[in-house]
Amino acid sequence: TIAENIQHLILATKPLVKLFSNPEIMATNWGKSNRSSRKYKEVVALYLKHIGIPGFTTKHYTPSNMEFTKSELIGNFNNTNKSLLDKTSLLSEEDLDNYQIPHPLIGLMTCKEFLFFTHYHTVHHLKTIRKTLENN
């Protein structure tokens, strides 16, 4: 449903907000990257290559509580994304290339790569929502 897609995006983005709030947590838990960040198209291709792996589940990002009004859900989505933008703006370009965090499917990604993925992932779900609206 539309609500499930929006809630999924919120659940997938909230951990980034928390991690981007404290880069030292990223450095302590996963070290710093020893390579250059991949380009947007490379990140998308890597994700698409891995998306069909059998047994992979996104249970942590699957909505369970759907008791939100439409305005609450949209507000949560907007607030979560604004928080991510705010936290990202506090990081330097060097930070985005150096700090890394694990993606549940791809493995360690730099913060910049994770932002590329988040953009692709969000647009993908927004296209799904648009198609649903057009078909109703």
UniProtKB/TrEMBL annotation:
Gene3D superfamilies: dinb family like domain
InterPro entries membership: DinB-like, DinB/YfiT-like
Domain DinB-like stretches: 1-129
Matches recorded under SUPFAM superfamilies: DinB/YfiT-like putative metalloenzymes
One Pfam family it belongs to: DinB_2
Record-given protein name: DinB-like domain-containing protein
Organism listed in the record: hydrothermal vent metagenome
